[in-house]
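Two proteins, back to back. First:
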Amino acid sequence: MAPRLPGWTPLSLLLAAAGVLHLVKPDPFASIVPSQLGDPVPWVYASGVAEIACAAGLAVARTRRFAGLATAALFVAVFPANVQMAVTAVRTDASTLTQVIALARLPLQVPLVFWALAVRRRAAGAQRV
């Protein structure tokens, strides 16, 4: 049997914290927005707002099912920024620790997507009761 992923509360808190960080300290996030998207600042703010919206949606039982799907989609949507961060870390001879963290983040998106989808499934099951 597969291990049970944590529930919606820690995922919601993670998203809320990340969203606030995007709005309060956008510079580190702006540096990883792929250059093909143009000015990174609107993308950083938009992703921060999206993270906060997903966090709020997960916190409300009536919207949790949709928010789980939206959260999974958000994790997929920001994956190019994680790729950009890894590419930049390797190309700029960043510290070994920075490179390891940047590269380790890539496969970590997968369990985040599964976690969001698990929250969606649990919410769907709870709505049937």
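And the second protein:
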Amino acid sequence: MSLWSWFLLPTLCLLPTSAAPRRGAPASANCELKPQQSELNSFLWTIKRDPPSYFFGTIHVPYTRVWDFIPDNSKEAFQQSSIVYFELDLTDPYTISALTSCQMLPQGENLQDVLPRDIYCRLKRHLEYVKLMMPSWMTPDQRGQGLYADYLFNAIAGNWERKRPVWVMLMVNSLTEVDIKSRGVPVLDLYLAQEAERLRKQTGAVEKVEEQCHPLNGLNFSQVIFALNQTLLQQESLRAGSLRIPYTTEDLIKHYNCGDLSSVILSHDSSQVPNFINATLPPQELITAQEIDSYFRQELIYKRNERMGKRVKALLEEFPDKGFFFAFGAGHFMGNNTVLDVLRREGYEVEHAPAGRPIHREKSDSPSSPSTQPASSAIFAPEVPAPEALVLEAGSAVHSLLPTHVSLPGSADLPVEAERKFRKKRRRPQRRQQFRQFSDLWVRLDERCQELFITWNSGLDRRNKFLDNFIIAFPLSTRRRPWLNLKYGVD
């Protein structure tokens, strides 16, 4: 999500997690500790109605780095709300498969066929460097949890030659020492999803995979090659020590914990795409960089804000007696044409809730019939914190200019009917699905999972190998035993 600091969209990868680090951020990301709740930064907005609903701005960093700086009234609003909505429904198997297929080149193609030879060779050299360095980048906690460097590299970069160049560019941006060290700790969005499951709240999503994914694939080939080349140049300069990134994950955390609501760096986190505008670029390349930035700003922020806002409105109208907690990337609430602006245009009164302001309790609900409840899409996850759980990391968001062939359910003149169609798939019986790691609003899916399932069908010896890998990838604490006994005979 950056002109700014758009870290990585989800390049879906299944990652085992390490022990949770100490709560609280390193000194570099800490502002002066503030003794009074009223002095803390707040990313909470109240939708004034009875019962009240809330918007909460998140960032795609490990929750342990920011949790102590989130005001108590934001946490209480989450506790009091009966329904929690996020950007994507990562518990739906379709979401995972769609995000994976969206990243892949057409059948029979690979990067060597589509990239200029020099860029392909530089990309391959850089990935070899990352693979060599990864053991030294990992923390003792990660190693203590049995997280091997080779596995982690394959989880992030496996099958990279089959991915579209734009997704490889985002993957390269995520293969940094700071990012690797943070793997295994749920990002703030995921932590809230896990807490919502633990508290048995209803959960849902306001977007579909295609709406986050297709805009990235909408760049033309020359723009994609430019973006990948600039990304490689930046990484090569960092390796050589000749470049310092203008702002880092530490800067993002500091702005979230201690900054103000107008901080542009937080808007970049919500689009999660690298910033390519550089005053040293030749004029023609500068134009290309500006075109890419304008495209992503329009597609990944403005159009998404409009769509998300209209779907929030439809939910509020369809379930007027329910209290919602909408947890979206903080950038969706900042600048112009925000989600807040969409709701205000529709006649809702939305106001910022400073730290220290009391939260009005939601009126108690009597048991409701299925017809009066939003379709459930509960996020199944271990109790939080769960350092051994698999979490699906989006380093956020795929988080866009939507191609004309992508439909916009929920934004039509008939919001209830559109929303009914939008949530139609959630009427199907839901299998209890282990939540995986997601992070920067956006997901990573490891091709290794598919390989494991193929191995299962290849004979007894390979089946034993599958079980060994399965047990490594899915720690005991993350498994739901009846499901495993039924499907795999694993105890």
